[in-house]
Amino acid sequence: MPGMGRRQVGGSSGGESARLFAIAEARLPGAGLGGYALAKDLRFVFARGEGAKFWDADGREYIDYAAGAGALILGHCHPAVVAAAQKQIARGLHFFGALNDIALALAGRLARDIPCAEKIAFATTGSEATAYCMRLARAFTGREKVMKFEGAYHGNHDYALVSAFPPSPGGYPQGAADTGGQPAAVRDAMLIAPYNDLPAAEKIAEDNAENLAAIIVEPVQRIIRGGDDFLFGLRKLCDRLGAVLIFDEVVTGFRIAYGGAQAALGITPDLASFGKVVGGGGPLAIVAGKAEIINLADPARRGKENYAYFNGTLHGNPVAAAATLATLDELQKPGFYESLNAAAGSFCREAEKIFARHNVPAIAANEGSLWQFLLMPKPPRSFADIAASDMPAARRLDSEMLRRGNYILPGVRRFVSAVHGEAELQKTLRDLDEICRAGI
Ligand SMILES: Cc1ncc(COP(=O)(O)O)c(C=O)c1O
User: Fold this and answer.
1) Of all atoms in ligand 1, which is nearest to the CA of residue 130?
2) What is the DSSP letter of 220?
3) Is 309 a catalytic residue?
4) How many A from CA of 127 to the centre of ligand 1?
5) Residue 8: its pLDDT value, please?
6) Who is most buried in 151, 241, 279, 391, counting CB within 10 A?
7) 276 catalytic per annotation
8) Among 223, 251, 252, 274, which is best to mutate for testing ligand 1, by the most ligand atoms less than 8 A from CB?
9) Domains recognised in the chain with CATH numbers
10) Active site residue 153
């Protein structure tokens, strides 16, 4: 396939990316936009994307498995999504969180299609959505503590950054700060439990029953499948203790299944956060859930003790709402998830055959179209399992994949999108074979 041969990526060899990084070094912390700065020999500057691929500022081609952190389930610049967004841009870019026809159409669609969604409240990012969920749960119950699971990422706010990436597992229910600048009171408001360990979660919840506002959980935590018994058990635990069950579906929502993991599992949380695919690649996220909880955000309640403040300049952004509506139309086409998940599954099983052929002790873990190479013998059940795996070797493998033009962030879970065809997936498998043959 033209342009998809073996070649090295990276910004240190001169060229336009190197020139742009010299500017970025002076202007941006870590010369990047966020927490995932690549090593200097691997980094590059994005220029444009199309379908399953993108090109860097030096014209080099990559297969994109990061997929906008999962938002781009239809790949870059899907024609229907571009057309819908362009049409809306010409009608108005944004109306400062005021009710607009497109956001309302999206709310109607999501309220119909998400099992827990009696009502919808708009936000701009997944982080905002999880922060709002926690605030709503606290306002609703009059309690303060929120249980989250070790290794779960719920966004960039202080409550979320407790034991998302702790230095080592354990020490429950005390959490570790993932960031400087976090007030101790925020850390103390969180209770940390090990994922997929229902008895441990029950014990911590019961010990704190009087002050437990909510349990927030990812139905698939990073690449770890939440066991049915575990997730059903959390539902029952919250019911028993009068706490709010929050599903963080920012990643799993409309990725694992139409309507979210909750639709596939048959478990209905009280609240759920959605972003990424819900947002269509644009600045939009939502909280969905029980009307009696979401109604606490009604501004008519302002001044009342349990009013939960919701407001943002870009909330209900009509361009992102139009992109999302166009995306949902595609996702509802017959067989969409079956073929996406089948493609991801057979790609991962082929990868595992390659590992076996070369005696590399690795798995290609996948939950539907979420996947990751892990240097461990069987699928993980907790953060502790991942921490015990050979993470440096997994990062070396990921870095080599990236060097050959397969865009994955070392150590981070990744995605197959609907636009990854046989040509892309087979090229990635050939690269994996070459890397394993050479030794990791
Ligand atoms: C499960 C989960 N929740 C929340 C977030 C935060 O979303 P955002 O980056 O849009 O703020 C993320 C982001 O990756 C996520 O994976």
Assistant:
1) 4
2) E
3) no
4) 6
5) 61
6) 279
7) yes
8) 251
9) 15-77+335-438 (3.90.1150.10), 79-331 (3.40.640.10)
10) yes
For residues 352 and 363, what is the distance between their CA atoms, to the nearest angstrom?
Answer: 6
- Would you say the CB of residue 125 lies under 6 angstroms from ligand 1? yes
| pLDDT at res. 238 | 98
Dist CA 134 CA 147 (whole Å):
10
* Rounded-to-integer distance, Cα 434 and Cα 404, Å: 10
For β-strands 363-367 and 370-374, DSSP reports them as: antiparallel
The predicted pLDDT at position 71 comes to 98
| CB distance 282 to ligand 1 below 6 Å | no
Residue 97 near residue 314, CB atoms below 8 Å: yes
CB distance 130 to ligand 1 below 6 Å: yes
Retrieve residue 302's tokens.
């302002």
The stretches in the chain having pLDDT less than 50 are 1-6
Predicted confidence (pLDDT) per residue in 83-137, tens digit:
999 999 999 999 988 899 999 999 999 999 999 999 999 999 999 999 999 999 9
Instruction: Pick the catalytic residue from 248, 270, 385, 431.
Output: 248
| Residue among 72, 124, 128, 130 to mutate when testing ligand 1 (max atoms within 8 A of CB) | 130
Instruction: Let me know: does 287 contact 133? Beta carbons within 8 Å.
Output: yes
pLDDT score recorded for residue 1:
36
The pLDDT, as a whole number, for residue 9 is 62
Whole-number pLDDT of residue 3:
41
Alpha-carbon span 220 to 281, nearest angstrom: 21
Q: In Å, how far are 102, 104, 119, 127 from 323, measured between CA atoms?
A: 10, 14, 21, 20
Kindly tell me the burial class for residue 278, based on how many C-beta atoms sit within 10 Å of its own C-beta (0-12, 13-18, 19 or more): buried
Ligand 1 near 413 CB (within 6 A): no
pLDDT for 353 equals 98
- Identify the pLDDT of residue 424: 98
Which helix (H) or strand (E) segment is 401 a member of?
helix 391-403
Q: Is 250 in the pocket of ligand 1 (CB under 6 A)?
A: yes
